[in-house]
Model the fold of this input.
Amino acid sequence: MHVRTLCLGALALGDASGYEIKKLFEDGVFSHFSEASFGSIYPALTKLTDDGLLTCQAHSQEGRPDKKVYSLTDLGRAAFQEALFQPIQADKYRSDFLFSLIFANQMPTSRVSEILDNKLEELKEEHNRIEAEGIVPNTPSSDLVKEFGAHVTVSMIEFLEKNRLRIEALGCETGACFSTPCEAVG
Done:
């Protein structure tokens, strides 16, 4: 989704600074869905403000630069509603974990086990975070999204635990690694 739409969506939840919007994508409610960097958020906020979709008010802070707080205008709210009717792009799933598993036959079994343990720990922490997190706004649709996230995470944990021996069997014995055409460099 375009960063412009992401910013409009964040501001549909309430007024916020660029930093607060970034935090929503970094470790807040939107962290499960999309990424948005400061390098893309601030230019988008400037353009949205220039286009009349947002207002920006500077709030004084003692000993610090003014805090710019953005708000949706009626035009911005209408633009966000319109964006919700645009075709939705297919989700892109990227995983360093799965990339590593492609090459499990070139790693010692102990390394494959370590990668698997780390992934399981990460998924369990993610599941706990999803369960503990209060989603704003607290609506039936946000509850459904939270439930979906919890279900996907539990399914991944169950799959990895069920297939642990199969995954570990992909590893090689020390010394036998890199015996495929993809030899180690050096």
In short: The helical segments are 3-12, 18-26, 38-50, 74-83, 96-102, 109-132, 140-162, 164-168. The longest strand covers residues 64-72. The CA atoms of residues 5 and 83 lie 7 Å apart.
